[in-house]
Fold these 2 entries.
Entry 1:
Amino acid sequence: MRVIVIGGVAGGMSTATRLRRLSENAEITVLERSGHVSYANCGLPYHVGGVIEQRSDLLLQTPQSLHDRFALDVRVHHEVLAIHRARHVVTVRNLETGDDLELPYDHLVLATGARAVRPPIPGIERALSLRDVEDTDALVAAASGARTAVVIGGGFIGVEVAENLVHLGLDVAVVEAADQVMAPIDPEMATPVHDRMRAHGVDLRLGSAVAAIGPHEVTLATGDTLYADLVVAAIGVRPETTLAEQAGLAIGERGGILVDDQLRTSDPDILAVGDAVEKTDAVDGTAALIPLANTANLQGRRAADVIAGHAARNRPVLGTAIVGVFGLQVASTGWSEKRLRAAGREVRAIHTHPASHATYYPGADTIALKLLVDPVTDEILGAQGVGASGVDKRIDVIATAMAGRLPASALADLELAYAPAFSSAKDPVNMLGHIAENLRTGTSRSIQWHEVWDAVAAGAAIVDVREASERAGGRVIDGSVHIPVNQLRDRLAEIPDGPVIVHCAVGVRGHTAARILTQHGRDVRNLDGGYRTWIAGTRAQRMHDSHSRAGVPERSTSDRTR
Ligand code: FAD
C-alpha cells in the first residue's frame, strides 16, 4: 500500500504516524513544501515574543527523526504541483534542485492547511503574515529593529502576535474592523479583554478599517495614521484548496474541500483533513470552516484509521478554542449568543462570575462564564469564559458535556474534582447547571443586560440589592431603588408596583432576592450576571452605537495617532 500525504504538520503528520502504528507494511511518503515538518505552529507567536526562547523548541521532529521512529519517507522543500487522479500519480517539485518527479499512490491524503487572507489594501505587500517557521524568522528579524507595529486583525493570532510584540517592547496598535476582538465570544464578554489589552498599552482600534499601508505608517479609513515600522496581517485564513480544485475534487459551499464522514473527498482514494476541509458544525449540522489544531490532529488520526480499514467516523465539530491575552484566558465552545440570534435560534443566556477556586484559599480569580441553552430542549448550544485562571477546564468540561449531549440542567449534577486550591465544592460548571435548572423549571426568571431598558419602558422597576458601598463612584443603574438583600423582607412596601428587576453585583444575591419577592407574589426577574455583566454589555453597546452613528472608532488614550 503506497500512501502519500501532502502537508507535513498537524493533520498530515498525525495521519502518517498513526498509519505507521497501524501498518508496518505501508509505504508512507510525506511531502512538505516548507523547510520543516511537524513544527509547533501554535507556538510561533511565542517565539516572536521570546517566551519560547529557542527556535529549535518549535521544531518537534525532523525528517530524520521521523524516519528513525516511524520509517516515514519525509521530504521537505517538496511541493506537489498536480494530482493525476486517473493515473494515481502526483507531480512533485524539489524546490532545492528545481527537479520535478512523479510519485504513485494508492491512497492520497491532502493536509494542505490554510493560507492567510491578504485583502487588496494598497501596500499590503509590506504586511507580514504568520503561518510557518519561515514567516516566524521574517517576523523576528523585522521586529528586532522596530519600535512601532500595527497588527491588522483582532482574532486569535492577531491578539497573540500583539501580546508578543508588546512583550518585546514595541508600541503596538491592533486594528479590528468589528466592534470587538475575538469574534467567537459575545460583546459583553469581550469588554474585559479590550480593557486588558489597553491596560497593557495596546492602541486598540475597534470598528476600524485599514485604508492603506505606507512605508512607515498605516492609514485608517477615518484618516488617522498610525506609525508602523512593522505591519502584521492576521485577518484570517482560507482553506488551501489549489491542488484539490485543479484535480477536480468537489469543493464545499464554504470553500473547503468536501469530505464525507470518513474524510474521503469526491474521489474515494483521496482523503483530506484539517484546515483545508469543511467540517460539519456540531450545533446545527451545517458546513463549517474551523481552522484549529485539535481538529486537524483528530482528523489526521481518523484518516489513518480509514486507510487502515478500521471503522472510523469524522465527528462534527464544536470549535472549542482558547487563547491567552495578557494573562487572561479567553475560551469558547459551540456558538455565541450573537450567532444564535442572527440565525434566528431561540436562546437562553446564563452569565456567572464565580471564583476560579475557593475564595478563602489564596490566589482565586473571578472568572466570567456564559452558557447558551436552547430554552425548549435544554440543549447546550455554547459556552464562553474569560478570566485569569480556571477558564480552560470549565470550557473543556462543557465541551465534553456537549459532545456527550448532556442537557444544561445535567451540569448541576456533575461530580467534578474539588479541593480549595482548585475549585469550589460547587464548581462553577455546577453553578451554571443550577441556574439552568432553575430557569428551566421556572424556579427563577432572568433578564439580560440588553433587555433592561425595554422592560423599564414597559413599567418595570429596578431594585438594587447590593450594599451601599458597592454603589459608590456612580456604579448604579439609573433609576434603581436601593434595598440591600438583608433588608428586603422588612422593606417590601418600598418596592414600586408592577414588574420588578432585581440585581446585585453578579446575580447570586439577586437570585435570593428574586426568590423572596416571588414568594411575596411579585413578578420578578433577576438581572443575569448582575451589574458586572450589565456594565460590560452597556459599554460594548455604547461603543457599537458610536461606531454605527459616526463611523468613528472608539478612541484610545494612546498618542500614537499623528
Ligand atoms: P498545517 O498545519 O497548516 O499544515 C499544512 C502544510 O501543508 C503546510 O506546512 C504547507 O506548507 C503544506 N502544503 C500546502 N500545500 C502544499 C503542497 N502543494 N505541497 C506540499 N506541501 C504543501 N490552533 C489551535 O487549536 N490552537 C492554537 O493555539 C493555534 N495557534 C496557532 C498559531 C499560529 C501562528 C497559526 C499559524 C496557527 C495556529 N493554530 C492554532 C491553527 C493550527 O495551527 C492549524 O489549525 C493546524 O496547524 C492545521 O493543520 P493542517 O494539518 O490542516 O495544516
Note: DSSP finds 14 helices and 29 strands in the chain.
Entry 2:
Amino acid sequence: MAKLTVSDLDLKGKKVLMRVDFNVPIKDGVIGNDNRIVAALPTIKYVSEHGGKAILLSHLGRIKKEEDKPGLSMRPVAERLSNLLNKPVTFVPTTEGKQLEDAIDGLSDGDVLVMENTRYEDVKDGEYVKRESGNDPELGKYWASLGDVFVNDAFGTAHRSHASNVGIASNMGQTAAGFLMEKEIKFIGGAVDNPEHPFVAILGGAKVSDKIGVIDNLLAKADKILIGGGMTYTFYAAKGMKIGNSLVEKDKIDLAKEILDKAGDKLVLPTDSVVAEKFDNDAAHKTVEGDIPDGYMALDIGPKSVAEFEDVLKSAKTVVWNGPMGVFEMSNYAEGTLEIGKFLGTLTEAKTIVGGGDSTAAVQQLGVADKLSHISTGGGASLEYLEGKTLPGIAAISDK
Ligand code: AMP
C-alpha cells in the first residue's frame, strides 16, 4: 500500500514534527561533511514554504554517558542548517520541558526549530536508560504532543524502533514520509516488491554472513545475483576450489554450499581474480583464472569477470548493487568496483539502485551518481529492506 507523503499534508499553520537524519560526522563541534543536512533540505524547505512550523528532531552519534553529551550537541548542525537555508533557525538545547515547549509556542508559520540530540534522552542523571533508543512509550507520547503532524524523513534509522520515529508515529494521527524516505520506499521497496525484469543484484563486500539474508530474499525475486568481493572465496571453497590465503568464513562454507545448490545458475561467481602476495597495495599481484594459487590472496575480481558481469547487466531493467567487488580502498584492487560503477552509469534504460558505503563512494568518485536512479542514504536500513524485512520506521508511516 502506498504511503502518505509530506506533499499530501495540509501544512499551513501546523506544528510539523520532523524526524530527519542529521547524524553527520562531527569532531570537537566541527562537522566533517554536511551531505546529510543538504539531503534533508528539500523536505524542510517544502514544509517551511507551505507555512508549516518545522520542528526538527534527529540523533547524532551514540550517547552512553553524560560526558558524551557536549561533543554531540546538535547546535553546530542547527548553525549549519541556518547557513544552508539562509535564514534563522532556532536551536533549543534540551529535549523536553518548558524551554522547548515555549520555543515551539513562539514559532511563526514557516519558521524552523532544531531540538537537541534525541539521544540525550538515552542518559538521565548519569544513568544509561535508553529512553530514545529503547523507544520508551512515555517519551514518544511526549514528543508527539508537541506537534500536529509528523513527517519522517530519516530512512537511516527506519530499521530501528526508536522513540523519535516509531514512538512519535504511534501517538500521532498522521505520519507522512518526507521526500528522501519516499524515494527510498519507491526504489528499494519497489525493487523488492515489484521489480521490473530482468532484475539483477550485485552483491559484494567482505562477508557472506552479512549478506546471507539479502541473498536468500533476492534469490526468490532476482533473475541473476552477481557475487564479488571477499565473500566470493567462501563460495569458491564451497565448490571445492583452491582459495590460497583469500578471505574465507570457514563456518559458512556449508551454508554457501546450500545457497549454490538452491541457486543453480542464478548465482554468478567471478571467473578470474586479481591476486596478491600480501594484503598490501604495493604487494606483487597478477590476474588468475579459477583457483587461487598457494601463497596468494584474491583482492579483486578480474577483467574477464567484469566483462561477464556487464554482459548480464546490459539487458537488466532493475539493478541493485551493494558492496565492493574488491578491496576498493587500495588503488590496485579498486578496478573491479570502479568498472562496475562506471557501467551502471551507462544503463539508461534500467532502474539502478546503489546502497552501502563503498559502492556509494565508488559511484561518487566516478562522478556517475547523478546518472543512477537512486543512491540509498541508509546502510543498515537498506540491507534490511533488501532482506525483505518490515522496517518499523516505514511500517509506522500512515497509508495513503
Ligand atoms: P562490507 O562492509 O561487507 O560491504 O565490506 C566492505 C569491505 O570488504 C571493504 O573494506 C573491502 O576492502 C572488503 N573487501 C572486498 N573484497 C575483498 C577481498 N577480496 N578480500 C578482502 N577484503 C575485501
Note: Residues 187-386 form a domain with the Rossmann fold fold (CATH 3.40.50.1260).
